[in-house]
Recover the amino acids of this structure.
């Protein structure tokens, strides 16, 4: 468990992080989300001790963060580079050694990962001979080759092709199965929905939200339902009476429609069924849970509105 | 420290595997050897014939020195002491090209001074030495001690030292050459520092450009990364220096054994002597009279020179490396680096001037200052070490070495601050105020 306590960081006169506090649970995928310039990368650099906070502290299992903790982290920065003139194998062994692995273990791990990603044949090739996709795989391997317990990925999917994105997502799932902690900073809300157990939303250096993804989405429900039915549109509108508002309708085929409705007042899912089942042939009623994309946009907009 | 060593090893291997490094590994010594060979050959220049006046106040050698060949040398004798100015200006001496003075003092000081108007060619020098040396022992010993002592004297004799000097320049030219050689060594040191110092700055700029710095900084502290870089480049420079020393040494040996063999074992044409007899006569062949060979093979104390070269290279590298690190860390892009490298070039220029100054005025106040000033002390020390220093002067040089090491360490602390702040700054506008901000934090 990693705990960030009242982290503040300023660069010259600019406040990049303003009293950010949250806890990253062990063995989960923790999403760090926020628009560009929100302070995510600064926070990640603080976690990696590349930057020191101006005030506040980072605790790991109740102890202040130390260099030996950081050594057991894996880090894939947003601005990631490679030594283009080195061979794939030498580059990865070099980085694994810097993370504290002895030479033989570093070599064994590198061979394991290259095999796992199907690029063993390229181990003695210079990095500048690799395709972009392969270079991306190497960058990811470099972050995890030393078997870290905490893996910090800053925008790991940016610039990756769809195949590599799936590869990375699958690996992240495997890490969690191994009870490893993954801190995952991204703009890709679809992957947050798919992967993250919990998120922290940062905007303009401030923590706007910190919750489980499911809870956050649930909290931001609008009371919208998707209905698919056979029957007359007028009958549908009449059946809803004043309890629900029709947001949109579309005709899928003759006498077959789909609509989105929003409840008024404190109606429940059961009320929808009760209102409609008598006059229409219902095929689907589904509550519209907002995606993380919706939650993200809503929270940021609300913050701007408050300001 | 372990991480610094891992980084240093990578830096070293990167250079070791680069084509330019390997080309220079061989090309550098070849150029130095070509220079030495050319220098030695240039010392063979000179006039091909001479009329030599032997000033022999005792009259012992009168007409006894004979040229062994028909062409080139001829001797005339005068039973008087001839002052050098008189020889230079006296009308009756204008027909002679060189003056040799011989008297009884030869036995004690073992020195024969040959003053010439125009530099004799090396072949003439060897012949003159041979003809004079051989007759001196026969005649002087026979006439002063008795003919029965000639054989005894031959077996115990030591060779005479022949000093060839221009009548218009009686200073010891060989010593000047030594000091210029020290200057050249200092120059080589500066070239090494420029090449490898630029390597440090470029390596940092490149890592910033390809964004690998952040990957590294997640594993190592900025100071460790900086030290690794400095150490790695130092290792590669020392490795190259070591290879240069070995290859130049090997080249000098090959010169001696093959290319310049005649200089070391050369015998005069028309003289029937075995190598043993030649040696007994104290003749080292052309090697003794070619100033180039004398300089590189006899005068230089390599056992003292090479360790000192490495010692002063280390201190000077230490001082300059921090500067190059600061420049690399400061640079937002390559153009920035080029602008900020100007102050270092000025310091290198000052260093080269300091070496030149030390060559001309080894004991001046400025030379003393430059010998202590950390950015010039390496160069000045090389000139002084090559010329030869007393123990007290050497101790002073070691103190200046220590000063350089301390200043270098202080500079590294400042460089560490700039590096820490600058390493993750990309494409920024470089200003002096930014530099001071980074230095303060």
């Amino acid at each position: 468990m990693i705990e960030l306590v009242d982290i503040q960081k300023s660069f010259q006169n600019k406040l990049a992080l303003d009293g950010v506090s949250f806890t990253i649970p062990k063995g989960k995928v923790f999403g760090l989300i926020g628009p560009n310039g929100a302070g995510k990368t600064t926070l990640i650099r603080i976690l990696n001790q590349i930057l020191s906070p101006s005030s506040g502290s980072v605790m790991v299992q109740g102890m202040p963060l130390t260099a030996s903790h950081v050594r057991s982290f894996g880090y894939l920065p947003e601005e990631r580079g490679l030594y283009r003139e080195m061979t794939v194998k030498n580059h990865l062994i070099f980085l694994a050694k810097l993370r504290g692995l002895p030479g033989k273990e570093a070599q064994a791990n590198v061979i394991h990962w290259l095999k796992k990603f199907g690029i063993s044949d390229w181990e003695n090739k210079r990095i500048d001979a690799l395709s972009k996709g392969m270079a991306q795989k190497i960058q990811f391997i470099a972050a995890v080759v030393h078997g870290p317990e905490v893996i910090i990925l800053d925008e790991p999917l940016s610039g990756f092709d769809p195949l590599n994105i799936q590869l990375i997502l699958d690996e992240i799932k495997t890490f969690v199965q191994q009870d490893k902690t993954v801190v995952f900073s991204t703009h890709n809300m679809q992957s947050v929905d798919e992967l993250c157990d919990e998120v922290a939303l940062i905007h303009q250096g401030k923590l706007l939200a910190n919750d489980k993804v499911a809870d956050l989405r649930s909290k931001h429900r609008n009371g919208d339902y998707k209905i698919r039915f056979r029957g007359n549109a007028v009958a549908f509108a009449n059946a809803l009476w004043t309890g629900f508002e029709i947001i949109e309708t579309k005709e899928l085929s003759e006498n077959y429609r789909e609509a989105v409705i929003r409840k008024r007042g404190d109606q429940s899912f059961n009320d929808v069924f009760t209102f409609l089942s008598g006059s229409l042939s219902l095929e689907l009623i589904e509550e519209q849970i907002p995606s993380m994309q919706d939650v993200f946009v809503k929270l940021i907009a609300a913050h701007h509105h408050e300001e | 420290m372990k991480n610094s060593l891992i980084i240093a090893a990578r830096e070293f291997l990167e250079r070791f595997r680069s084509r330019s490094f390997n080309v220079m590994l061989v090309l550098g010594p070849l150029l130095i050897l070509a220079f030495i060979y050319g220098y030695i050959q240039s010392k063979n220049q000179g006039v091909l014939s001479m009329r030599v006046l032997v000033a022999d106040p005792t009259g012992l050698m009168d007409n006894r020195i004979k040229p062994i060949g028909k062409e080139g040398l001829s001797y005339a004798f005068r039973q008087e002491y001839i002052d050098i100015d008189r020889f230079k200006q006296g009308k009756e001496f204008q027909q002679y090209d060189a003056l040799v003075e011989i008297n009884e003092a030869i036995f004690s000081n073992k020195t024969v001074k040959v003053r010439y108007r125009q530099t004799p060619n090396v072949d003439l020098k060897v012949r003159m030495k041979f003809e004079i040396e051989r007759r001196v022992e026969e005649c002087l010993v026979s006439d002063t001690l008795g003919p029965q002592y000639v054989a005894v004297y031959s077996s115990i004799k030591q060779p005479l030292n022949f000093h060839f000097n221009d009548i218009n320049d009686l200073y010891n030219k060989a010593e000047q050459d030594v000091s210029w050689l020290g200057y050249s060594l200092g120059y080589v040191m500066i070239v090494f520092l420029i090449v490898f110092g630029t390597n440090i700055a470029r390596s940092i700029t490149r890592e910033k450009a390809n964004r690998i710095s952040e990957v590294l900084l997640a594993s190592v502290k900025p100071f460790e990364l900086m030290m690794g870089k400095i150490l790695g480049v130092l290792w590669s420079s020392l490795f190259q220096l070591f290879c240069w020393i070995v290859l130049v040494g090997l080249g000098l040996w090959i010169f001696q054994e093959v290319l310049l063999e005649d200089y070391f074992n050369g015998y005069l044409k028309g003289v029937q002597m075995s190598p043993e007899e030649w040696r007994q006569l104290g003749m080292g062949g052309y090697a003794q009279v070619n100033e180039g060979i004398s300089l590189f093979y006899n005068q230089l104390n390599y056992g003292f020179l090479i360790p000192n070269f490495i010692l002063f290279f280390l201190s000077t590298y230490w001082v300059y490396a921090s500067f190059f690190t600061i420049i690399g860390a400061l640079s937002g892009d390559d153009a920035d680096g080029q602008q900020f490298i100007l102050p270092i070039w000025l310091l290198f220029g000052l260093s080269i001037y300091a070496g030149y100054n030390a060559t001309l005025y080894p004991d001046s106040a400025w030379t003393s200052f430059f010998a202590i000033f950390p950015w010039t002390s390496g160069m000045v020390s090389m000139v002084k070490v090559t010329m030869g220093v007393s123990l007290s002067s050497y101790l002073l040089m070691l103190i200046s070495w220590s000063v350089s090491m301390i200043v270098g360490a202080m500079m590294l602390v400042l460089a560490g601050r700039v590096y820490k702040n600058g390493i993750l700054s990309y494409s920024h506008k470089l200003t002096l105020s930014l530099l001071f901000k980074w230095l303060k934090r």
Q: What stands out?
A: Chain B is about 65% helix and 5% strand. Chain B touches chain A at residues 3, 6-7, 10, 14, 17, 207, 210-221, 424, 426, 437 (CB under 8 Å). The two ends of chain B are 23 Å apart (CA to CA). The longest helix of chain B spans residues 222-259.
